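Mods, move this if it's the wrong board.
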Amino acid sequence: MPPIVELHDIHKIYHMGDVEVHALSGVTMTINEGDYVAIMGASGSGKSTMLNLLGCLDRPTSGAYFLGGEDVSRLDDDALSEIRCSKIGFIFQSYNLIQQLSVIDNIEISLYYRGWSERDSKKRAEELAAAVGLSDRLNHRPAELSGGQQQRVAIARSLASDPLILLGDEPTGNLDSRTGQEILRMLDGLHQSGKTIIIVTHDDHVAAHCERIIHLADGCIESEREGKA
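Not the wrong board. Structure tokens:
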């Protein structure tokens, strides 16, 4: 079985006037099914660029990115949009929920756009809401929820299409320490169920939950060590 994620000699260069900024410089990395990975680094290390590339929000300048065995490096915008919708579950620091929609609508909206029937998408959303402990909040809107509850909605939404990878961007960054630990325990449980999880974080306590901790520096992989997972 091929790895879930393969990066081969990835370079990302941004042009700022006459200046070239090398955000990633020859990154090669493999992530297997079921891995639990933290990507860390100081500001300017390249971790945000790595997040954008892994999430198919951007393309590398050179090199190849295989996701689930498919080279997604050179796909056009429409194809990348489909990849993001079907193969990647996003969990953002700021939740990125649609404020006008209820909990159940936020969870099922991606399924609706993928062509699921109303009945099937609602059933799937109800199951996921129950899995994250929000069965009694289905008709609440984000403003009526705590930060932890909003992140639970975001996690449920990320699972809707049964993606190949879950990609977290500082998933506990807006939460107090107790609530953050609750979210991390939920992610730990998803890992134990077999999900492949990649978290971009600056927080050592978050990274310690992962099996692998990859440090970036100056656009390169500086080191890798084991976590506690």
